[in-house]
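Hi,

I'm pasting everything inline rather than attaching a file, because the server keeps stripping attachments. The sequence lines come first, and each chain or strand is labelled.
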Amino acid sequence: MKPPILKQTENSSTDSSKSILFFSVGRMDFGVEAASVGIITGKDWVPPEGGWKFEMGKILGFDFSGGARTLVVHFPDFSCGFVVDSIFSQGISHLNILPASPLLKSWMNPSLLSGFCTINHRLIGILDLRILADYALSHNDSPTPKH
Amino acid sequence: MKNHIQPNFDKPSTNKRKVLSLFVFHDQGTSFAVIPESVMQVSAKSKPTPLPFSPDWLDGVVNIRGEILPVIDLSKYFQLEENAGEQHRRQILLNWENNHFIVWSSHVTGLEQVKATELEPPMENLPRTLAGKVEAQFRLDDRIVYVLDLSLFLNESKERVSS
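And the predicted assembly:
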């Protein structure tokens, strides 16, 4: 029997492709690693006790448009939801991630983007939701409604 | 890579005949020069993708051959008066100690041969934001060209963002 070539490729350390969930916030588009998102639900999601609900547009400094969907993320120490405007119609795409260089990361504070994907000839930043959550929690003036 | 132009202002007699190659470009009314070894590519402009939580002088990123490259507006970084008549037309890809980044340019002169004796120390009345990042300056036609110290620029830019 031939070896499962596809599986070998997926396990290869040189394979930088990931399943990415794309969404819009304000006038910008972002992605997150789909594996980091628990569920996608409506904007009225209520966080569990000890959890948080973040309006991603406000964290990123955009005019908040009201939001439509909530990306629920379960971290080891707490759960939180990020309200976003809309999920891309393409849904989840399996794409190569182009890493952000150390220089680029040093020019962002906080350094929220772990890498980038190209979709429809556009570059889209991949957000690190944990860094985003930590940033929001550490800023008292950030609009982070608590349960 | 030869890292600095190493002008020797104290001992002009030792380098009188020395001629340096410098890559000259202009943006928003200000002229800059860098050592040619730091220039990887000059290309037509492409629209950068903006980034959250980035300073105003970082216009965003572009993808060149699979590498994500930050695009810097030097006029904004150095808070220089912008010349509304000049537009960004070119992108210069620079490499400094394996740090790859792009700067805008409205006009590229290219390589200029500059006699060491034509290099002057930076003016005392240099704009405050340029001070410390300019190794030397020289005159090209009726312009003053600032020779950038990319090492100091990169170090300061990181400190400026982190603070």
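The first strand of chain A starts at residue 17 and ends at 25.

If the labels don't parse on your end, tell me and I'll reformat.
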